Amino acid sequence: MDKATLGGLVLALGGILLGLMLEGGNLGQVVQPTAAMIVFGGTLGAFRWLAQVFIEPATTAQSTIELLVKFANQARREGIISLDKELATIDEPFLRRALMLAVDGTDPQELRQIMELQLDNKEEQEEKIPQLFESAGGFSPTIGIIGAVLGLIQVMQHLDKIDEVGKGIAVAFVATLYGVGAANLILLPAAGKLKIRIRDEQIIREMTIEGVVSILEGMNPRMLETKLGGFLALAQRPRLSRLQAYETPQEACHACQS
Questions:
Q1: 246: Cα within 13 Å, side-chain hemisphere
Q2: Are 83 and 75 contacting, i.e. CB atoms less than 8 angstroms apart?
Q3: Is there a contact between 225 and 245 (Cβ–Cβ < 8 Å)?
């Protein structure tokens, strides 16, 4: 779980509810199933992607670099064909596809072109996800107003029961509260978080292309680690030592001597 995102949402909701209670209100005043159904039902298309906001990605840039350096060492010792047995252990489809092409003997430039085409197609699809949340955040308050108007229509039809009018109006405006709250507490922040997540995934894929092409070209694992580290911000760069790029004591010793 992404504790920062979850904690921020809980803090925001908690602050609002605490303010309501300090003003003498109660939770029942804002818990209205009908209003919630109107607002959240109208923006349901965006919420199916919401889990990505609260779950940390399984693949990180650092783990990708470590894996590619490992493959570079193996290819250097046993040949690129030896990586064929590693394909079944790779969960990331993009990396598995790139490595499969490398094992099949694809020319490095051709491999780069194939994978960059897949990268562009994937980016084009993923860019639509934050746009969906931004759009939902734009019309969520409007749906809330529609819910409030529907509630007011029902209130106006029963003006003969004047004691119930005030309560009915208050309930009607809860839909507006839900619409504004969903936009500013969930949908728009989720759009921003998803943009960051998607960009991180794009960097990992770009790194994967460079890593696999470099392995195919026989690049030294230490040079590969340095090259891939250039994709990251300084604070995100993996802290791999020179010796960690080598799997056997003999290789490590040779690196120290050189």
A1: 13
A2: yes
A3: yes
Residue 215 tokens, joined:
């392995």
In one letter, which amino acid is 161?
Answer: K
Mean pLDDT of 39-50: 59
Q: Does the CA dihedral 33-39-44-47 come out positive or negative?
A: negative
Helix then strand then coil, in percent of the chain rounded to 5, is 80, 0, 20
- CA–CA separation, 195 and 182 (whole Å): 18
CA distances from 99 to 86, 102, 106, 113, 210 (A): 9, 5, 10, 14, 11
Q: What is the pLDDT of residues 173-227, one digit of tens each?
A: 887 888 888 888 888 888 888 888 888 888 999 999 999 999 999 999 999 998 8
How many angstroms separate the CA atoms of 150 and 115, rounded? 52
Q: pLDDT digits over 102-154, tens only? A: 999 999 999 999 999 999 998 888 888 888 888 888 888 887 787 777 777 77
* Encoded tokens for 151: 């509630």
Is the pLDDT assigned to residue 170 strictly greater than 60? Answer: yes
Sequence-distant (≥ 6) Cβ neighbours of residue 34 within 8 angstroms = 147, 151, 175
The closest alpha carbon to 180, from 225, 142, 228, 154, belongs to 142
Contact 194, 130 (CB under 8 A): yes
